[in-house]
Write a structure and sequence with these properties.
There is one protein chain. The protein is mainly α. The protein has three domains: 6-169, no CATH class; 170-233; 241-339, no CATH class. Helices cover 69% and strands 4% of the residues. It has a three-stranded antiparallel β-sheet with strand order 1-3-2. The longest helix has 37 residues, at 204-240. The model has no long low-confidence stretch (mean pLDDT 87).
């Protein structure tokens, strides 16, 4: 069974009394990071109100964990004195503060190294709450411990959820590229661990399982997207071959079948149809070709049969209620041609 990783600091009374403070003679502002650990935690919790609420509860647990005799005898805690020398609780608060700062920077490092968690504010907020849930207090001893192993599990879960969300909003090909690159990196780390007999601290087996599952899903999605793109490209090329007369004929059949009821008047329905299918023509030209198509189909019986056969697959896909009428007209036109030969 994997050994749990626990962080905790305990200061003896002697060490606390003998601690020495140093004074730096030059300005340290330039040496300090721009953001402190509490700035990051405040950011991760989204609002000042959230941060204050969490810290208030956390500090209450710290206070409750103090030894009972300290709570009653400490002049600083009882409000009898503001002197540091009278702060009998100081050693306990210091050791808990050191543990908290160490754990905070460990947590912040994990978040900042995994931008997909940092960028998903919902998951980051939940993970930060769970960060605080990784602390435990030893009552009456003023001790606090941090379960690093538990935090890694929470972080992995947040990472998996954040990645799933990111993949769902990205193209299948991009997602598959990220999955393959990450899987390759994880498997390299796994081999290195086995080669040098290193302990797996990052649950690589779970990560590999997650990415292999996603790999199968997104390989299928890439094939589907590729097929859809091919079909769309084929349809676009097919539609580009239609003349204005053929487009006008398509409109005639769709309009006759009551499939274009967005507008009351025919001219308005024509304009919508032209815009919908990105037909390169003027309205007057389209209206003129519509009149020609209608007359040649219904009166002159000399509409080119090959043109009806050309537009039939498009009508089947987009206006399938027209198909029977078109097939009937093809039959009638063929009979008419046959009778007049």
């Amino acid at each position: 069974m994997k050994e749990r990783k626990i962080i905790g600091v305990e200061l003896s009374e002697e060490d606390y009394k003998n601690r020495a403070f140093i004074k730096v003679d030059f300005d340290t502002d330039e040496l300090l990071p721009e953001k402190k650990y509490y700035d990051y935690l405040r950011e991760f919790l989204l609002t000042e109100k959230n941060y204050n609420k969490v810290m208030e509860s956390f500090n209450e647990y710290k206070k409750k964990s103090l030894p009972k005799d300290i709570k009653t005898k400490c002049k600083f805690c009882t409000g009898e004195s503001q002197e540091e020398n009278d702060k009998d609780c100081g050693r306990y608060y210091d050791q808990m503060s050191i543990t908290f700062v160490m754990a905070s920077y460990e947590f912040i490092d994990i978040v900042l190294r995994h931008k997909f968690i940092y960028n998903n504010k919902k998951q980051l907020f939940k993970l930060t709450i769970n960060f605080f849930n990784c602390f435990s207090f030893i009552m009456n001893k003023g001790l606090m411990y941090f379960d690093l192993d538990k935090m890694i599990k929470f972080s992995l879960n947040a990472g998996f959820l954040s990645l799933s969300d990111m993949f769902s909003k990205s193209s299948a090909l991009y997602s598959l590229t990220v999955i393959n690159d990450t899987l390759d990196s994880i498997q390299d780390e796994e081999i290195e661990n086995r080669l040098f007999e290193k302990e797996d601290h990052n649950y690589l087996d779970l990560q590999i399982e997650f990415f292999k599952n996603k790999k199968g899903i997104y390989e299928t999605k890439v094939l589907i997207e590729k097929e859809e793109k091919t079909q769309k490209s084929s349809r676009v090329e097919e539609e580009k071959l239609f003349s204005v007369l053929e487009w006008a004929t398509i409109f005639y059949y769709a309009d006759e079948s009551k499939l274009l009821l967005q507008k009351k008047y025919v001219k308005d329905r024509m304009k919508v149809f032209i815009n919908t299918h990105d037909i390169i023509t003027t309205f007057e030209s389209f209206k003129n070709q519509y009149s020609i198509a209608k007359r040649r189909i219904n009166k002159k019986n000399d509409y080119p049969i090959e043109k009806l056969e050309l537009i039939l697959p498009f009508l089947k896909e987009h206006y399938k209620q027209t198909v029977t009428k078109v097939e009937n007209d093809i039959f009638i036109l063929k009979e008419y041609v046959s009778d007049n030969q």
